[in-house]
Design a protein that fits this description.
three-stranded antiparallel beta sheet, single chain, 5 strands, alpha+beta, elongated, 91 residues
């Protein structure tokens, strides 16, 4: 493959890759599929994904916008809370 593009279901460009991808050492078709999965999860669940994310890994939930949301986050047992602004969950 010489170059590739990932478009979402609304025809919005989400990723571009070239430099004979996946011919570069260390890159392969699994990375392309992981990128597609990551964009799908982000779009569907409105979450951020950490570096080297793989399907079924925890995702990063958005930062709380109010004090009440922050308090609720601290009590939510489904979250792994690192700080008032950083928490992960299983999607």
């Amino acid at each position: 493959m010489q170059a590739g593009f990932i478009l979402d279901d609304r025809q919005i460009l989400r990723a571009i890759f070239d430099d004979p991808y996946p011919m570069i050492p260390g890159q392969n078709m699994n990375e392309i599929l992981r990128l597609v999965d990551a964009h799908w999860v982000n779009a569907k669940h409105q979450v951020a994904l950490p570096a080297n994310w793989r399907p079924d890994d925890r995702v990063i939930v958005p930062t709380p916008k109010t004090v009440d949301e922050a308090r609720a986050r601290l009590e939510d047992r489904s979250l792994e809370v690192f700080d008032r602004y950083l928490a992960k969950k299983t999607r």
